[in-house]
Structure formats: C-alpha cells, structure tokens
TrEMBL record:
<dbReference type="InterPro" id="IPR013130">
    <property type="entry name" value="Fe3_Rdtase_TM_dom"/>
</dbReference>
<feature type="domain" description="Ferric oxidoreductase">
    <location>
        <begin position="260"/>
        <end position="396"/>
    </location>
</feature>
<dbReference type="GO" id="GO:0005886">
    <property type="term" value="C:plasma membrane"/>
</dbReference>
<feature type="transmembrane region" description="Helical">
    <location>
        <begin position="392"/>
        <end position="412"/>
    </location>
</feature>
<keyword id="KW-0479">Metal-binding</keyword>
<dbReference type="InterPro" id="IPR051267">
    <property type="entry name" value="STEAP_metalloreductase"/>
</dbReference>
<dbReference type="Pfam" id="PF03807">
    <property type="entry name" value="F420_oxidored"/>
</dbReference>
<comment type="similarity">
    <text>Belongs to the STEAP family.</text>
</comment>
<dbReference type="InterPro" id="IPR036291">
    <property type="entry name" value="NAD(P)-bd_dom_sf"/>
</dbReference>
<feature type="transmembrane region" description="Helical">
    <location>
        <begin position="259"/>
        <end position="282"/>
    </location>
</feature>
<feature type="domain" description="Pyrroline-5-carboxylate reductase catalytic N-terminal">
    <location>
        <begin position="35"/>
        <end position="118"/>
    </location>
</feature>
<keyword id="KW-0186">Copper</keyword>
<feature type="transmembrane region" description="Helical">
    <location>
        <begin position="217"/>
        <end position="239"/>
    </location>
</feature>
<keyword id="KW-0285">Flavoprotein</keyword>
<dbReference type="Pfam" id="PF01794">
    <property type="entry name" value="Ferric_reduct"/>
</dbReference>
<keyword id="KW-0560">Oxidoreductase</keyword>
<dbReference type="GO" id="GO:0015677">
    <property type="term" value="P:copper ion import"/>
</dbReference>
Length: 483
C-alpha cells in the first residue's frame, strides 16, 4: 500500500511543477509604478518621497530631455508614454496648464488621477479644479487629495501622522490613493464625493485656523487688562494726584499686562481637562462625546499654551530692561540724594521680610519660566516625537500643573502684602494681579479635588468598568481625553 501511495505522489509531484530554491531567495514582487505629471518643486518632492517608500516613479514631461534634475532612480518620458505605463497618476501642475490633459483623454481612460492643485485665493474659478479635471477627462477617476502637503514637508519627511483629505466619485480609486498615502505615513480622511473638492482646495488658503480661537482669547484678555490698568494707574494718577505718568504705558503697564495674560492663558490650557473630568464623573463614563464648545476648546490647548509662552517671553525681556530705563535710574538717584540730604550718616533701612519676599518672587518666576520653556519645547513635533507617550503625558500633565502652581505662587508672592491695603483698591477696583489669580486658583483647587482618594477611585472605576455600562455601538462615536 505504501508503494502505491509513493508511486501516486511521484506521478503528481513532477519536477517541472515544483520550484525548489533556498529559503529566503524567493523573487520579490516588483514595486508598483506610479506616474507624476509635473517636474516642479512639488512633483520632485513627491517623487522623492515615493521612491523612499519603495515605489517606482516615472515622470511625464513636455520636455523629457531638459526638465531639470529629478530624484535619483526616477524615469522621465513624454506624457503619453508615462500615462500608459502606470495606473495611478499624480497631477502636480497648475489648473491653467490642464489643457493638454484633454488631448490625452484616450491615454487616461480608466486611470486614477490624483489632483494636488491649489489656488491663490478662494472662488478664483467657477468650479473646483478637480471637477474641472474630471470634465476634461471623463473616462478617468479623479480623486482630490494630498493638496495640503507642501514640498518642504515632503522633502524633510515630516509626514508621520499628518492628516490628509480625499474625495472622489470612485470608491476604488479613493481606496488605491488611501493605501498609497498610508504607506507614506499619512492619516487619511475620506470627505465623500468629488463635490467636496472645493472645500478641500480651500483648506490651504486658511490662515492659522487652529490659532484663531487662542489668538482671539489672548487679544481680548490683553485689551481688557490694558485698559483696566490704564484707568487704574495712569488716569487715576492724573485725576486724583495730578501726576502725568503716561510714559509708563510703554514698559511698566505693558509688563503688567504680559504676565497676567500669560498666566490666564496657561490656566485655560488645563481648565478644559478639569471640566471634562467632572463631566465624566457626572455622566459615569468617559466614552461619550463632549459638547462641541468643550471639544473645540480642548483641541486648541497646544496653541493656547504656546501663546502663553510667548507672553511669558515678553514679560522676561521687559523685566530685564527695567534697570536701564531712564525713569528707574532717575528714581534711584533721587532716593540716594534725598537720603543724603536728610542725614548723611544714616544708612538705608534694610527690610528682611521684604528681601525674602523679593527673592522668593524672582526665584518662582525663574523656575516657572524654565518649566514654561520645557513645556513649549516638548510640544514641537521633532521633540515630542522622540518621547514615549508616558514621557510626553508626564511632561504635559504633571509638569504642566507644576508650572501653573509655581506661576500662581509667583503672583501670590507679588501681592502678599497688598491684598488688605485700602490704597491698593483705587476707585474701589481690585488690582489686576488679583483678578488674574482667580482662574489659575480655580483650576488648581478643582485639580486637587480630583486627586482626592474617593474621586480617584471613581475615575478608576469609570476607566475600568466602561464596558459594563456602555453599549458597544457607542464606542465608535466616543472621544477619550487624558485627565
């Protein structure tokens, strides 16, 4: 019986039907060939990135033999020849040069065209560039996408985790482009049909969209405290005492506004996290969407922190120049002259308590500014990308709250002997530094409440028991926050 089986096997497994080669020597599949129309900065940078990601690249050019330097390893040929060699074609030319594509329509039949074009301003043309391209080449599948990538980002490889948008009428074409973009390290978001192309083309024309809310908040706070201090310091002195101290507006008044805005903006970075934590405690779960206003607030915390750091830098620079100001030097000289006129042998009175308060004030300011800079550095992609999630979370959360605590203490030490003085309340209004301490103090108190053992156990229970309290379908729609 064994002889029969052996014989049967011998007949089925013929030598010519089996390819025997040592392990690890199997022929690797040939890399996919992609085509790029356009040899400008964007086309060259995209080709370089595709080559680095393992693709083969061919350029289509009107002048194949004089199109300038291209990435090493790429081919260049005429538009027609390049289009016939690849099924996925990137259009890296301006809209005003699309006319040649209409004449090439037969060569582009069934191809996937990725339109990367942008315009110089909104509503520059009556229809979106991608819609116009689809009308010129109706037999191709046009996908609008990758237009938010710059040549600089492609050259320097700053693509990991960067979000790009796609839209198109063909699901298969969008899938092919999405797979390629994922291989480049990009995160892809499908925006639907080609009717969304106008929206995608307007994205690069937006001016700092993520910075608008933080800048508006900072400008509003700055304007409020500037006029508040102008009334309390300059106008009050002129009306009540007949003194013209308007020269203080440029440095002294500004140096009071900068730290106030900086501290409040830093507090606003951590206040939404505290609000979110209490909201989760109230709901009994962290797997439910936050209100839109809170969600938007939390998404711009990084920008708020960087704005706060900018104001802290201004405060530090302004503080350094205080001793060289004319008014300060004049005041010091006048004090010395007055003391000598009264009694030449009497030394200046030294207040030990005031010395401790002043040194503590400066030390807290220096430590707070140091931690400020550390937080700002770790927010840079090149630095934050080198940290593990635990390290990044420790710096941004633990050190962040420590920074807020030290800067708040810096403000309290500044006014330690002014809170109960009637002369501090000019026209029955509290000093500006008292007002600016309200928000950080509230944040720190609420954070301390969250650290209580009973609250901490509740948060742990929420994190561990969400599967028993929430339906499965809600998980896909939820947003998680780091408390």
């Amino acid at each position: 019986m064994s002889m029969t089986v052996t014989g049967g096997m011998s007949e089925e497994m013929k030598p010519e039907s089996v390819s025997l080669r040592p392990l690890g020597t199997a022929a690797a599949p040939e890399p996919e060939l992609l085509c790029i129309f356009g040899t400008g900065d964007l086309g060259r940078s995209l080709g370089l990135r595709l080559l680095q990601s393992g693709y083969r690249v061919v350029y289509g050019s009107r002048r194949p033999h004089s199109c300038g330097p291209l990435p090493q390893g790429a081919q260049v040929m005429s538009h027609a020849a390049a289009a016939q060699s690849a099924s996925l074609i990137f259009i890296c030319v301006h809209r005003e040069h699309y006319d040649f594509l209409e004449t090439m329509a037969p060569h582009l039949e069934g191809k996937v065209l990725v339109d990367l074009s942008n315009n110089l301003k909104k509503d520059m043309y009556p229809e979106a560039n991608a819609a116009y391209l689809q009308r010129l080449v109706p037999g191709a599948a046009v996908v609008k996408g990758l237009n938010t990538l710059s040549a600089w980002a492609l050259q320097n490889g700053l693509l990991a985790g960067k979000q790009v948008y796609l839209c198109g009428n063909s699901a298969g074409a969008k899938q092919a482009v999405a797979e390629m973009a994922t291989k480049l390290g990009l995160t892809v978001l499908d925006r639907g049909s080609l009717s969304a192309a106008r929206e995608l083309e307007d994205f690069p024309l937006q001016l700092f969209p993520e910075w608008r809310l933080p800048l508006r908040v900072a400008i509003g706070i700055t304007a409020f405290f500037f006029f508040y201090l102008l009334i309390r310091d300059v106008i009050y002195a002129y009306v009540e005492q007949g003194k013209d101290i308007s020269f203080r507006i440029m440095v002294s008044l500004a140096n009071k506004v900068f730290p106030i805005v900086s501290l409040i903006m830093l507090s606003l970075c951590y206040l939404p996290g505290v609000i979110a934590a209490f909201l989760q405690l109230y709901r009994g779960t962290k797997y439910r969407r936050f209100p839109d206003w809170l969600d938007r607030w939390m998404l711009c915390r990084k920008q708020m922190g960087l704005v706060a750091l900018g104001f802290a830098f201004l405060h530090a620079i302004y503080t350094f120049i205080i001793p060289i100001r004319y008014s300060v030097r004049h005041k010091l000289i006048s004090l010395v002259v007055d003391e000598m006129k009264d009694n030449k042998t009497t030394p200046f009175y030294f207040d030990n308590t005031e010395a401790w308060a002043t040194d503590s004030f400066y030390v807290l300011g220096i430590l707070g500014f140091f931690l400020y800079v550390l937080l700002g550095l770790t927010s840079l992609p090149s630095v934050g990308g080198s940290l593990s999630w635990r390290e990044f979370s420790f710096i941004q959360s633990k050190l962040g709250h420590l920074t807020l605590s030290i800067c708040t203490a810096h403000g309290y030490v500044y006014g330690w002997n002014k809170f109960l003085k009637p002369s501090t309340y000019k026209w029955y209004t509290p000093p500006a530094f008292m007002l600016c301490l309200i928000v950080p103090s509230v944040v720190l108190v609420l954070k301390a409440l969250l650290l209580l053992p009973c609250v901490d156990r509740t948060l742990t229970h929420i994190r561990q028991g969400w599967e028993r309290t929430q339906p499965r379908e809600e998980m896909g729609e939820s947003k998680v926050t780091n408390l």
